[in-house]
Automatic annotation (TrEMBL):
One of its GO terms (cellular component) is cytosol. Residues 351-374 are annotated as: Disordered. GO terms for molecular function: monooxygenase activity; oxidoreductase activity, acting on paired donors, with incorporation or reduction of molecular oxygen. InterPro entries: Bact_Lucif_Oxidored, Luciferase-like_dom, Luciferase-like_sf. It comes from Allostreptomyces psammosilenae. This is Alkanesulfonate monooxygenase SsuD/methylene tetrahydromethanopterin reductase-like flavin-dependent oxidoreductase (Luciferase family). Residues 1-303 form the Luciferase-like domain. Gene3D superfamilies: Luciferase-like domain. Keywords: Monooxygenase, Oxidoreductase. It comes from the Bacteria. SUPFAM superfamilies: Bacterial luciferase-like (SSF51679).
Amino acid sequence: MKFVVFTLISNAPDAVTGQEYSQNQRLLETVEQAVLAEELGYDAFGVGERHGAPFLSSAPPVVLAHIAARTRRVRLLTTVTVLSVLDPVRVAEDYATLDHLSGGRLELVIGKGNDSRHFPLFGLEASHQWEYLAENYALLKLLWEKEDVHWQGNYRAPLRGVTTQPRPLQLPVRVWHGSATSTLSTELAAYHGDPLFSANGFHPLEKYAALVRHYRERWEAHGHDPKDAVVAAGSGGCYVARTSQQAIREYRPYFDAFRATAAAKANASPFHTLEEAVADGSALVGSPEQVIDKVGRWYEAFGHELLGLGVDAFPAKVQREQLETFAAEVAPALRTLAPSRLWEPSGRDLVHAHPAAPSAEGRPAAELDGAPAA
């Protein structure tokens, strides 16, 4: 198994002390967290996209470009890029530039986003969010894979003979599809032959396992080799301590503070107590042995090769402690338990070997035979 540390650069007051941090401090701490993640042997670092408080991650390509200059090995992911509200031409240009500056370490994770503030902010209708995502992704793929692009869709002005610059360094740039609530996202990923990143954040395991099963079923239905399907999974908080009692006690203030946020309420998690979230949800809170066992159960359900961890809720000192503890006491056992094909220079990277998806040239994705539509 491989590991990605991800962040939305949340800038809420400390749940224990009430201390507030400047925006400048939090942004700079995010860069240092990425440097630490590389030093500790994590495989990737991800920056998500949000537009509104308490999050400072409105410009992931800018943050990741700075991280690229401070690191050498770690893969750089977007967790996620809210492609439903973005211009695919701008995305193609920004992230191809980042791909070059990082030496070909970029990977995109795309999604429609789950923050209702995004759509009115960008002058868009939330009722069309899935159509926006499908059409924008079809165009992004076209812009990265071809030159002299002629295209017409439903939600953007037509393109005539466009070649975006620079061209991506990687051929192709890997694109994951973020999945949290709907089979529309798993269908889109399977249709295009792309890997799936399950949010695995707010609800019981079975909800996410059902989406992963749908992805694998539709992957095969679209003619892709079942062995080439690749899945990643997130987690709903991470706090590892010597004993489960210590972990619960020390993590509780952060859980309670999160439960009171608008994001938690919008996602309608059924877990009202930390004990429920640990027992039946995706919170990785406990001793090293408990966390290893829990991720092992997820692996049986998802077959995932990449695990996402977030430590946003904590002050910088606790973030460092948690990343160090997980890297030393949890990650080695999980790497042995669940081998991963990702990012192995001496092996076959199956994601980059997927068969070509049907061409979307000249048509929006929602009109393609077998492609998802809202």
